[in-house]
Write a structure and sequence with these properties.
heterodimer, A: about 270 residues, alpha/beta, Rossmann fold, 2 domains, six-stranded mixed sheet, globular, B: ABC transporter involved in vitamin B12 uptake, BtuC, two-stranded antiparallel ribbon, about 70% helix
């Protein structure tokens, strides 16, 4: 594992909704090249923190550094262009667009998105478009979605949409991929494939992952760092084994005994 | 025994007027103007997912800018056209800058308010717009008319047309130019829709957050979408001003926008080619219903005028019930978009 410095540094981030402090001074680091899981009971502030980090919410206080740059308060599209790409808890497949268009949309630096290029260099636009299409088809092949390329994304199953969303995020050439519950609502076979993809992408493309997950088995077996949130704060950070034994985590999240980790959710509810 | 057909059939059609070519040319002119405006709404509503109820304002800003530039500033008609287009596009972007940050339904409300503000301004800024008197091209005073240059061109077109048609309608050249414009605009928009630029617009329509998460500055694209519909609105406004040879604030009431929306819905959302057909059909129904003869009393002229709109509305409701995607709309995209 190429553990190096932090790619993402989050410090003392606060996000209030009226009187509720959904994120209450969260501090965490995501190491470059790691697969980091973000866990915590419902209402711990994981998704809110995601939204602040990726610019979808404006944080009230704190700092976020990504790849050495201060990025706190920057709009989502700027962060995406810098290599911080996210997916959503409820998939945002662009339903009334074909799968291939979903993919091609995500490619960065497209000359054809600028009006003046459409008028003054249509040939350059077409050439680039061809290249983007090729790249998109390669990624679709990787995710076994080639046959569905021309179907509307809205006709895909829930699991296929999750795969499409991951493939589409990769088209954006991310350094850091933030996945909000990538396994939720998909069958175990597809889930396993998704995890394989994450491992391979980290290995082959050097993509760093931060993902929110509730399935403890997935978290313990597939991540190399675990960050635990409760009540808007980060209460523990470490490798899965450390976190599993941490008394604060057991108290806050797992509720019962440490051996029940595989079904921690059910135990607490 | 002979029977008067009129007493047998309560509903009849007067055939003399219906074969009047000049009348149908004027209907074609209106259909073309609304097709151009509705194409702009198609860019916004059909392909960007922003519901713009301010089309009448874009028409007003375009038409009044052109007229004021010619009459007050004194520049040539042909130079006033691109300048007025530019002014209207800037106006559109300026309106969009604050309002496009609103959620879709609130944006729609803001655009109605904006359109009414423009109309009321035109009504009250008498020194500039002539207020309720309007700006007009009186036949006895051709010096004070914004359309003189166009009239020259119109006459020379008809001079050529006379080779084939002994007594051409005075509106025929306008009809020609308008429908050529509809054709060019439709082709240009169909092309744009296929580019990466058009793909981003569609992505915004589907899910703006997803587009933002993938690095697209969605506000910028929405502003461009609005500027394009402002451009088309301005062009529609020019043709309206040339058709009526007068400019009154009353020509830019919200009803105009809703007529354009009816055209859009009739032709079908998310399809540029349907817009022209929708416009022709809509105006065929609106104007065609003029020829329905009903016994007077009880059907007085004003009652029939109201009835015509009611019939048009019923037809639209029927369309929504049986073919919600419109004539050429993409039903699959419509259903999946939900």
């Amino acid at each position: 594992m190429n553990d190096s410095g932090p790619l993402l540094e989050v410090e003392e981030v606060v996000k209030r909704f009226g009187g509720i402090r959904a994120v209450d001074g969260a501090t965490m680091n995501v190491r470059d090249g790691s697969i980091t899981a973000l866990i915590g009971p419902n209402g711990a502030g994981k998704t809110t923190l995601f939204n602040v980090v990726t610019g979808f919410y404006r944080g009230d206080r704190g700092s976020v550094r990504f790849d050495g740059d201060r990025v706190f308060g920057e709009p989502p599209y700027e962060l995406a262009r810098k290599g911080m790409v996210r997916t959503f808890q409820i998939t945002k497949a662009l339903a009334a667009m074909p799968v291939i268009d979903n993919m091609m949309l995500a490619a960065p630096n497209q000359p054809g998105e600028l009006f003046r290029n459409l008028i003054f260099m249509p040939r350059g636009v077409r050439a680039h478009e061809k290249q983007v299409r090729k790249q998109a088809m390669e990624l679709l092949q990787l995710f076994n979605l080639t046959d569905l390329a021309d179907d509307y994304a809205g006709t895909l199953s829930g699991g296929q949409r999750k795969l499409l969303e991951l493939a589409r995020a990769l088209m954006a050439e991310p350094k850091l991929l933030l996945l909000d519950e990538p396994m939720a609502g998909i069958n175990p076979t597809l889930g396993a494939r998704l995890l394989d993809h994450m491992q391979r992408l980290r290995r082959e493309s050097g993509v760093t992952f931060l993902f929110i997950e509730h399935d403890m088995e997935v978290v313990m077996n597939h991540s190399d760092r675990v960050i635990v949130m409760a009540e808007g704060r980060v209460i523990a950070e470490g490798d899965p084994q450390e976190v599993r034994r941490d008394q604060r985590v057991i108290d806050a999240y797992l509720g019962g005994t440490a051996t029940d980790t595989a079904h921690g959710e059910e135990v607490t509810q | 025994m002979t029977l008067d057909p009129a007493t047998l059939m309560p509903v009849g059609v007067s055939f003399e007027a219906i074969t009047d070519i000049d009348f149908w040319i004027s209907v074609g002119v209106l259909a073309g103007i609304y097709a151009i405006v509705a194409l702009g709404l198609q860019v916004n509503t059909g392909f960007t997912g922003i519901v713009n109820f301010g089309a009448a304002a874009f028409m007003a800003v375009g038409a009044y800018s052109m007229a004021i530039l010619v009459l007050e500033v004194g520049i040539s008609f042909w130079l006033s056209l691109p300048l007025a287009m530019l002014i209207t596009m800037l106006f559109g972007a300026l309106v969009g800058l604050p309002s496009l940050r609103l959620r879709a339904d609130y944006f729609a409300i803001a655009t109605i308010a904006m359109a009414e503000m423009v109309r009321l301004f035109a009504q009250n800024a008498r020194g500039l717009t002539g207020g309720n008197q309007g700006l007009f091209c009186a036949d006895d005073d051709p010096s004070n008319c914004y359309a003189n240059s166009w009239r020259d061109v119109s006459d020379s077109i008809n001079g050529f047309v006379e080779n084939f048609w002994s007594d051409p309608s005075s509106l025929f050249p306008l009809l020609l130019v308008i429908w050529v414009t509809v054709g060019i605009a439709t082709i240009a928009l169909v092309y744009l829709q296929k580019t990466p630029w058009g793909r981003v617009l569609r992505a915004i329509r589907e899910d703006e957050d997803a587009a933002r998460a993938l690095g697209k500055n969605t506000l910028l694209f929405k502003l461009q979408s609005l500027a394009i519909s402002a451009l088309l609105g301005a062009i529609g406004g020019f043709f309206l001003a040339l058709n009526l040879a007068t400019l009154h604030p009353i020509d830019f009431e919200p009803l105009i926008t809703f007529f354009a929306f009816s055209v859009l819905v009739l032709g079908g959302l998310a399809n540029y080619k349907g817009v022209a057909v929708g416009a022709v059909l809509f105006w065929f129904v609106i104007e065609g219903t003029r020829f329905i003869d009903l016994p007077d009393p009880p059907f007085t002229e004003t009652r029939i005028a109201a009835l015509r709109l009611a019939i048009t509305g019923l037809l639209l409701i029927g369309l929504m019930a049986f073919r919600p995607q419109g004539l050429f709309g993409n039903r699959q995209e419509m259903v999946l978009g939900e």
